[in-house]
Amino acid sequence: MLRLLRLFAPLLLILTLGSAAFAYDTKARAAFVIDITTGTILLSKNADTPLPPASMSKLMTLYVAFEAIRDGRLSLDERLPVSQHAMSYKGSTMFLDTTDRVTVADLLRGIIVLSGNDAAAVIAEALSPDGTEAGFARFMTKRAHNMGMTNSTFQNSNGWPVPGHEMSVRDLALLARHLIEDFPQFYPIFAETEFDFDGRSPRNSQNRNPLLSMGIGADGLKTGHTKDAGYGMVGSVKQGDRRIVFVLSGLATAPDRAEEAAAIANWAFRQFTEKSIVDAGTEVARADVWMGDTRQVGLAPAEDVNTLLPALGTEPLKLELVYTGPIRAPVKKGDALAELVFTPEGLGETRVPLLATEDVARGGFLARLRSVSQILLIRLQQRSEGAI
After folding, report:
1. Does residue 164 have a pLDDT over 80?
2. In a domain, 334, yes or no
3. Beta 101-103 vs 218-226: how paired, if at all?
4. Are residues 55 and 157 in the same domain?
5. What percent of the chain has pLDDT over 90?
6. Is residue 232 part of a domain?
7. N or C end of the chain, less CB within 10 A?
């Protein structure tokens, strides 16, 4: 089969929507910013480099816990014991001890609001296949890989600094999106600014997310800090119909983190506007079909295709259709056959699946003969051009 690169249909080949580059020069060691509403990547710096995530990796522990609650393996009012191992954690904690039996609801708030290392370990041991935090970390790694977070490896439940405990900022952004979209019933907890557990930790009762009090639409998710990781943050901000998720890692100080997070949010909402590319179900091109009862099949996106573009740009946005063809018949309406690819200048590439708009049955003898003849003609032309 020939691998073909086809340009988009002439009507939509070039859209002058504005795409001049307005790259953000972040001080973070690694950064990733995505507009969730359109799927547009606004900033990517060392996005796939595995780095120590510190407490930001607690988000994966929370995701696994939310799955267990959804599936009935854990309940919010269930009380869990605290092991000597969980109690031994230092740093940010709920000040739990082995005499405690703590509700899952309190433990979740202990992880989200207080960043409790001990609370994460209690949840981990309860859900671990072998009852240990290490066993939970192995399970968590496998679950993350299954979700597409292939640059994540966990050694514990809470981000305590250990060699080999790593996540990329792109993986953290993907995880944040899953938390927001898969568990909307739990997501409001991330916006809570205070949790006073049993009066034990007055010095650790405030959410460390610096954006929650700024009135800019921030509602999550998690900060992190260790000596090796520096100061990091997984943040989400919603303004109007748009939501962005951003991840910063490796900043020098907590004030740097707060300043950079606020600046990133302002930049993402002020410097970009949403533009419509094509409506759902609109045929945008036709792909060649091999041995079908018709020679071509229409291609259309299943959903509206929108993107973000720099507000002040004037450069044209070029669109390409990519598929491997000719496509072998039979084809069923709705089959994913191609991708619409575009990369606004200075932003990440976007790939949108295109589906068949109609059925194409396998053709009879004459149709198959015509298809074979076309392939032979193309190969003869390629051979002739190569000989010149």
Report:
1. yes
2. yes
3. unpaired
4. yes
5. 68
6. no
7. C
- In a shared domain, residues 85 and 12: no
Q: 99: domain CATH number?
A: 3.40.710.10
Assess if residue 22 is contained within a domain.
no
102 and 175 together in one domain:
yes
| Number of structural domains found in the chain | 2
| Contacts for 73-82: CB closer than 8 Å, 24+ residues apart | 73/127, 74/104, 74/126, 74/127, 75/104, 76/103, 76/104, 76/105, 76/108, 77/103, 77/104, 77/105, 78/103, 78/104, 79/103, 79/104, 80/104, 80/107, 80/122, 80/123, 80/126, 81/122, 82/118, 82/122
Token pair, residue 175, equals 């995880």
213 and 292 assigned to the same domain: no
AA letter at 380? L
- pLDDT confidence tier of residue 324, bands split at 50, 70 and 90: confident
173-226 pLDDT, tens digit each: 999 999 999 999 999 999 999 999 987 767 788 999 999 999 999 999 999 999
Question: What kind and span of H or E run contains 84?
Answer: helix 84-87
Give the number of other Cβ atoms within 10 Å of residue 172's Cβ: 33
Q: Are residues 66 and 7 part of one domain?
A: no
The CATH number linked to 356 is: 2.60.410.10
* The domain boundary residue, chosen from 199, 219, 239: 219
Least confident of 110-119, 313-322, 325-334: 313-322
Count other C-beta atoms under 10 Å from residue 177's C-beta: 16
Share of the chain above pLDDT 70, in %: 86
Helices (H) and strands (E) in the chain, counts: 8, 17
> Which residues are marked as active site?
55, 58, 115
Mean pLDDT over the full length of the chain: 88
Reading the block at residue 62, the tokens are 């929370």
Assess if residue 124 is contained within a domain.
yes
With 90 as the cut, is the pLDDT of residue 275 above it?
no
Look at residue 3 in the predicted model and tell me its pLDDT: 36
Q: Do 8 and 72 sit in the same domain of this protein?
A: no
pTM of this structure? 0.81
For residue 210, the enclosing domain spans 45-219
Asked if pLDDT for residue 140 goes beyond 80, the answer is yes
